[in-house]
Amino acid sequence: MNKFLAVPRLKTDNESIETTTSENQSQVERKIEKLFESFCSKAQCDPEAPVLYKQNHINYIKNHMFTLPENYECLDSSRPWLCYWLCQSLALLNCNLSILEKSNVVSFLSKCQHESGGFCGGPNQMPHLAPTYAAVCALCLIGTEEAYAVINRENLYTFLVSLRLPNGSFRMHKHGECDVRAVYCSATVARLTNIYTDVLFESSAQWVIRCQTYEGGFGGVPGVEAHGGYTFCGFSALLLLKSIHMCDTKSLLRWVANKQMSFEGGFQGRTNKLVDGCYSFWQAAIFPVISELLESENQRPMWSMYDYQALQEYVLICCQNRYSGGLIDKPGKPPDVYHTCYVLSGLSIAQHAVDNSSCVVGKPENILNKNNPIYNIEETSLQKALQYFSMTKPINYF
Amino acid sequence: MDDQNQEHKSDGSDFSDEADTLNYVLYRDRPEWKDVQPIAQDDGPAQVVQIAYSNKFSDVFDYFRAVLKSGEKSVRVLGLVTDALTLNPANYTVWIYRLEIVKHLKVDLHNELEYISNVIREFTKNYQVWQYRKTIVEMLNDPSGELEFTADILDMDSKNYHAWQYRQWVLTAFSKLMENELNFVDNLISQDMRNNSAWNQRYFVVNNSDPNNDVINKELEYTFGKIQILSKNESAWNYLRGLLLYSENGIFEDKVREFCSKLYNKGNRSTHLMSCLIDLTDADESTNPENVEKIKFALKLCSDLASVYDPIRRFYWEYISKDIELKFNFREHDTKIM
Predict the structure, then answer these.
(1) CA-CA distance, A299 to A293, in Å (whole number)?
(2) Residue limits of the Prenyltransferase alpha-alpha toroid domain (chain A) (predicted)?
(3) Could you say which of A103, A181, A270 has the minimum Cβ distance to residue B1?
(4) How many CA atoms lie within 13 A of B95 on its CB side?
(5) In sequence order, what DSSP letters do the residues of A5-74 get, joined into one string?
(6) pTM, entire model
(7) In chain B, which residues have their Cβ closer than 8 Å to the Cβ of A181?
């Protein structure tokens, strides 16, 4: 008897009416069904299956850490993101960069810091909140004194102030778009580097909560559709702003629980969209935090409220490129560093879904280091960074 | 945030068409640019996440860095930033500079709108292009072509998040345009009743109108109709729950409860139907004796969902079940006493 895929996986019933949505959905289900079938027949003679091909992924990440192929030109304004995605993936895989390699990444990120505060998408570009978040997180993951010291906290504060709008929301950059990512990125870097002030985030929570939609998830701005990435940002921002009481947790929980796919086991980003490996993080990260919230309200003994085993099976069986290394969106897609980071980040969340008891699918060596579901920074690196910045001198606010 | 990656997937290649490459002259070989000293990218001594730029890419951006530094805002620089944006439309620094040039040269904004339309048609999922369009339309203060434009983009992908977000901005900033939006949405829902973006837009329209009881009643009937056709469509069920947020003193709950009960009694076991029935019980805080049967029914639904109809969410349904027991102070032995 195969212990995997033990819980029945139900395919979507199109109720005899095919639409574009259901056609696309059935196509993905058919592809994944084949993978599940071939996995089950292999697993019968392989007690170790499914395996996380850690070394292949480490090789993939290290290959991309220094040089990237031409098709990454479109991410030329997201280079601190590349550093963060790679550093986070390595930290989860418990793989350290050498002292020299660390120092090289730090020196590159310092080149991305703008003289007026914040970080840019690359050297000689303008500062932007997304690479600022990515650079600060990457530096925390590197975790050396040299890395922490790169961040000019006073200028960073000035940069955040310059992006704040009167209603408490933030722009991503000068003249840039304003959405819930911006509040999340600002709150994260402010908390991490210990420059958070109530004034900076006055009424931000009130703005963020307007992004929670009738479905229960959050959209990018008030009115738009609930979406996994923005839901993570909105929910986590409320936590960082100490305003989680404003969230309709019950409807959020219902929405996010329903984003786990009945057949695939992975998560979709929006209602009636397709599974994507990256939502293994954006969606699954909500669960441990909600559990903790309900626990602290002393409501009841808590357990994990999603199928963390099915999620791990999706990742291990459907999202690995065994040959080149790297992780993917769904079968048939090529690996990339974004998916490598978020699929691993989600896998770690699922492996640590229940405290003090193993819920690792496959062999025990599949386990990744524990991830923090609010910052998406490997937990020990995060604690070390928070500790470091809690000892830094207060900056001059004005 | 996933869209960033979609950019990566869709925007990555296709620039070095053979024919293009043959006719293209690098900036460093153009006599009219002889006066400009290109600036190479300064990554520092270390090689980290270094992209293997094509010659064309390095050349264009070397010259872009030079003009960014000198502050030159001229017609030739407008051409240069156009090339830079073709190579990487996600470079927000170039977009910021383009806007400064356009303002400085007093470029005809209608031409600029046409330009950004073409860029968006090629790169539909990119934050920068939509933000730039918004800025141009604000400067023109003329939204007359915007609904048609977004409709075109949505015709290619009816769930394009950026296009919907932009469309909502247009409708909010220029409120007169809202009149026909319900027809537009209705049309999309008819094409694909599972298009959640269209349902969300419907909610947006209703929310921005005067959502009085008549309107909500009409919307309930509309949704009931769609659910009768596709009872397992989560989009319609979520919309239905959304409508109940307008229900004051429970005036719409009975209607929804009746609809759901009928469907259930006919044998329908849509997980969303069962979920809705559970929530309607949960929301009912009256403690009359009849309630015990209702609670038992809700608990049975939870158990059926966990074991048969929705096993992937079994932990969730166990939680909901425990939550109901706790809330109504209901224990298994109570049922035995009854």
Answers:
(1) 9
(2) 52-377
(3) A181
(4) 27
(5) T-S--PPPP-TT---HHHHHHHHHHHHHHHHHHHHHHHHTT-TT-S---HHHHHHHHHHHHHEE-GGGGG
(6) 0.95
(7) 1
- For residue B17, what pLDDT is reported? 54
Structural contact between residues A143 and A381, judged by C-beta atoms closer than 8 angstroms = yes
Cβ contacts from A onto B, under 8 A? 263
Nearest chain B alpha carbon to A340: B5
In a domain, B52, yes or no: yes
Tell me the C-alpha distance between A105 and A112, whole Å. 11
Instruction: Report the greatest alpha carbon distance in chain A.
Output: 67
On whether any CB of chain A is under 8 Å from the CB of B66, the answer is: no
Look up tokens 């459907």; give the residue.
A318
User: Does residue B326 sit at the A interface (CB-CB below 8 Å)?
Assistant: yes
Is residue B240 a part of any domain in this protein? Answer: no
Distance of alpha carbon B60 from alpha carbon B26, whole angstroms: 8
* Contact residues, chain A, for B315 at CB < 8 Å: 303-307
The encoded tokens of residue A326 equal 């790297």
Q: Which residues of A touch B89 (CB under 8 A)?
A: 74
> What ipTM does this complex have?
0.96
Angle at A379 between CA A377 and CA A384, to 5 degrees: 95
Inter-chain touch B233–A215, beta carbons under 8 Å:
no
Written as one string, the DSSP assignment of A216-269 is: SSB-SSTTSPP-HHHHHHHHHHHHHTT-GGGS-HHHHHHHHHTTB-TTT-SBBS
Which strand (E) or helix (H) includes residue B70? helix B55-70
| Chain B residues in contact with A333 (beta carbon < 8 A) | 9
Residue A221 identity (one-letter amino acid): V
Give the per-residue pLDDT at A285.
98
CATH code of residue B57 = 1.25.40
Kind and range of the H or E run holding B51:
strand B50-51
Q: Is A97 helix (H, G, I), strand (E, B) or coil?
A: coil
Question: What's the CA gap between B3 and B1, in Å, rounded?
Answer: 5
- Please identify which residue in the block is written with the tokens 């959640």: B196
Locate B19 and state its tokens.
């024919």
> CB neighbours (10 Å) of residue B247?
17
What are the DSSP E strand ranges found in chain A? 67-68
User: Which of the four pLDDT bands, split at 50, 70 and 90, describes residue A46?
Assistant: confident
Closest chain B C-alpha to A202 CA, distance in angstroms: 24
* Total domains in the fold of chain B: 1
pLDDT at res. B201? 98
The residue range of the domain holding B57 is: 18-107
Residue B148: CB atoms within 10 Å: 8
Domain membership of residue B241 (yes or no) is no
Does any CB of chain A come closer than 8 Å to the CB of residue B54? yes
Placement of tokens 């969230």 in the chain: A247
The verdict on residue B223 lying in a domain is no
Catalytic positions of B: 125
Say which residue the tokens 């925390």 belong to: A140
CB B123 within 8 A of CB B133: no
Residue A341 near residue A88, CB atoms below 8 Å: yes
- Counts of helices then strands in chain B (DSSP H, E): 18, 1
How many Å apart are CA B232 and CA A15, to the nearest integer? 8
